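Notebook p. 47: complex prediction with 2-phosphoglycolic acid.
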Amino acid sequence: MRKYFIAGNWKMHKTASEAVALASELVKELKDGPHKYMIAPSFTALDAVSKVVKGTNILLGAQNMSTDEQGAHTGEVSVLQLKDLGVQVVILGHSERRHTYKEDDAMINKKVKLALSHGLEVILCVGELLEEREAGKAEKVCEEQTRKGLAGVSADDLKKVTIAYEPVWAIGTGKTATPEDADAIHKFTRGIIADMYGKAAADAMVIQYGGSMKADNAQALLAKENIDGGLIGGAALKADTFKPIALCK
Ligand code: PGA
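Predicted complex, structure tokens below:
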């Protein structure tokens, strides 16, 4: 049985003190929650939030990371710096990184391997643009991003990887993929993992859905066989809107 993994991606929201306030509320509200949890504040709030979630059932996530361990990379943040702050999980290949900041699969793969080599868990995001979906290419795009993102990742390291299927047209738009459409892509992606790593690895792979997941659609999405959690943006910014998803049965 796969355990649901409910993760909040706070994106470029909240000052350090606002982040601490939300994290403190979530620590209280989710302390008996049945699922695996993560929150990913901005880099600027990681240190402060780390102290709040330390020793709780909420993992500390970062939203991105450099391809390199250290060096002349102005404006970047390295895996060593993240680990130093207590970060346990890193989100890589988010569509905002792919499309706004032009990160390609090779770059994302380098980050995935670096994070894993330092013992971090990785949430690898995949997902198609609206025009790709309309052109019937959703599966092809997800397959390519999955295969290229995981190239060279060992079966052992794969255990530290979660995949997040986030159709780009559903992110922050209020449009959600129907549970059936999302489940079909999740099933397809699980098949790619089976092809790459075998059936047992595919059965164990947690695949989150992301894209306007909210209290009122989470239940229907999570009820699907292949949807194992959520990567939540907008609804993760308040305890009132995150809690019902996080405590969803
Ligand atoms: P959203 O964002 O929930 O606001 O659509 C999800 C994400 O981008 O991870």
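Notes: The two ends are 14 Å apart (CA to CA). Residues 1 and 204 are 8 Å apart (CA to CA).
Next step: compare against the earlier run before touching the bench.
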